[in-house]
Structures are given as structure tokens and as C-alpha cells.
Design brief:
This protein is of the alpha/beta class and 278 residues long. The protein has helices at residues 44-51, 74-79, 97-103, 113-118, 121-141, 156-169, 186-202, 214-220, 238-243, 245-252; strands at residues 6-15, 18-28, 33-37, 59-64, 67-68, 82-84, 174-178, 206-210, 223-228, 231-236. Helix 3 (97-103) packs parallel to helix 6.
């Protein structure tokens, strides 16, 4: 199945008179990784919640190929091949890792209720096929040994990888990653970055990444959109964005002309923190 373009046009979201996103536009070309960055409260998570159907746009449009996403509920968006991870983990702690990954296969299950209840041969065949796919994804992400364990017993960094694996189990054409390395230690972050790099090289999909870690963005992103107070400051390559005076001002409170040494370096992480209000 081909990967269509994602086009965000004039996206505006208001909550009780507060404008969380204000006329935001950007395009994600097929099979590219597009990062959305900005200080806390810039509107990044709000943008993600519109793309995945959690929030409704007040104005503007989001199209994925021929589909207008702003008119669809989350399950319909998922059926188009859009999968996401969450800033705060959204896993079932009492279920095993394998069962959590099986939830990501739900839209791809063809067995009906009666067939499954009667445990007919076709249902057993599909059950084996789905289990094989879950194991394949788990091996790819490096969590095979954790498949029989309840997710609630796993370290935080492993649970973040489980959430990524569950999203990949949906076989997405568009993968939305909401701060995938937040809260991880150095080793966990490096392993996750390597995994995301493999995903974008091998799998037939586009990725939209929300992240504070500028070093990660610089290594992975083809293009970056910067938000500040709900508005788009600029879109460009990671190198172009790092040099942009409005981006420097948003992160550091001064322009490059006022302080040439203020420009963010590749390995800087100028805006740490995990929470973001709409």
C-alpha cells in the first residue's frame, strides 16, 4: 500500500477562548521523518491529538492522501494506517507484553465474533498468524524476552519500547511518536534512537516526531517545524532551524544578533521537560 502525503493547513484549535494552535501549516512528504519541536506549551501535543482524532480542530484541515482526518474519530483514523505513541504511557499494565501488542493488531483481524467463539480452523490459523507477527515486531524492537511478562513489571524504558512495538503492530503508513525517549537514561535513549532509525529506513511509512531532544531531531529528521505559543515559527532542515533567529529567541530568549554564541548546537537539549498543556 502506498504512503500518501500528510498536509496540515491552517490548523487552529481553541479551548474555552484559549488558542492552543493558531493557523499552523506544514507538509510531511511520503516516507520522510518530520519533527515538530518547540518549548513547553507550544502546542506540540495538541497538534498530535488533532492528527490522531483525540481533539477536533476549530478551523483548518488535515489530509492524509484523500482522507480528511479532522472529520474522523480515532478508530477511523487508525483504520487508515495512522498509529501513535503517547507522551504518558498508555499501556495495560496487567496484561502481558504479548497481549498489549495484540491490541495493536485489532484493526487487522478478520475473524468474526462467531468464528472466534467457535474456535474454527480459520480462527486458529489467524490466531497463529497474528502471534507470529507480534513476535516478529517484538524481535525487531528488542523486547522478545518480555513477551510473557505483565507490562506493569517492566522497567520504564522497556515499556516505552513496548508502546512503540504496539504502534508498529498496526502496520502503519503514518507513525506519530510523542516524545519517544522522554524519561529514559542515556543507554535507553541511544537504543531507542537506533530503533527509530531502523524503522524509518526499512518500513514503508512516514513518521511525525514530537521531541525536546535537539540532538535526536538533528540525527533523524528530514524536516522540522517549530511551534511557539501555538504558532508556526518556521519549517526547514535541522541545520536551517538551529540557525533561525526566531527559533533561538523562542528557546533562549534572545536573538543571534544580540548574542551570536546563543545559537543552539547540535548536541544541545535546550528545552527539557515532559509535560505540556494544550
Amino acid at each position: 500500500m502506498s504512503v500518501p502525503e500528510l498536509a496540515v493547513r491552517g490548523l487552529t484549535v481553541r479551548f474555552a477562548g484559549i488558542t492552543a494552535l493558531d493557523d499552523v501549516s506544514f507538509t510531511v512528504a511520503p516516507k520522510t521523518l518530520h519533527a515538530v519541536i518547540g518549548p513547553n506549551g507550544a502546542g506540540k501535543s495538541t497538534c498530535f491529538n488533532v492528527l490522531s482524532g483525540v481533539y477536533r480542530a476549530t478551523e483548518g484541515s488535515v489530509t492524509f492522501g484523500d482522507a480528511e482526518l479532522t472529520k474522523l474519530p480515532p478508530h477511523k483514523i487508525a483504520s487508515l494506517g495512522v498509529a501513535r505513541t503517547f507522551q504518558n504511557l498508555a499501556l495495560s499494565d496487567y496484561l502481558t507484553t504479548a497481549a498489549n501488542l495484540q491490541l495493536g493488531r485489532h484493526r487487522l483481524t478478520r475473524t468474526g465474533f462467531v468464528t472466534a467463539g467457535l474456535h474454527l480452523p480459520s480462527a486458529r490459523r489467524e490466531e497463529r498468524a497474528q502471534a507470529d507477527k507480534v513476535r516478529e515486531v517484538a524481535e525487531y524492537v528488542g523486547i522478545t524476552e518480555h513477551l510473557p511478562l505483565p507490562v506493569g513489571l517492566l522497567p520504564y524504558g522497556v515499556r516505552k519500547r513496548v508502546e512503540l512495538a504496539r504502534a508498529l503492530c498496526l502496520e502503519p503508513r503514518l507513525l506519530l511518536l510523542d516524545e519517544p525517549v522522554a524519561g529514559m537514561n542515556g543507554g535507553e535513549r541511544r537504543a531507542m534512537v537506533e530503533t527509530i532509525g531502523r524503522v524509518r529506513e526499512v518500513m514503508d511509512l512516514s513518521i511525525v516526531l514530537v521531541e525536546h531532544d535537539m540532538a535526536l531531531v538533528g540525527r533523524l529528521a528530514d524536516e522540522v517545524t517549530v511551534l511557539d505559543f501555538g504558532r508556526r515559527l518556521t519549517t526547514g532542515t535541522p541545520a536551517e532551524v538551529r540557525r533561525h533567529p526566531d527559533v533561538i529567541r523562542a528557546y533562549l530568549g534572545k536573538s543571534a544578533e544580540e548574542d551570536p554564541a546563543a545559537a543552539p548546537r547540535t548536541n544541545d537539549t535546550p528545552a527539557q521537560g515532559q509535560g505540556e498543556n494544550p
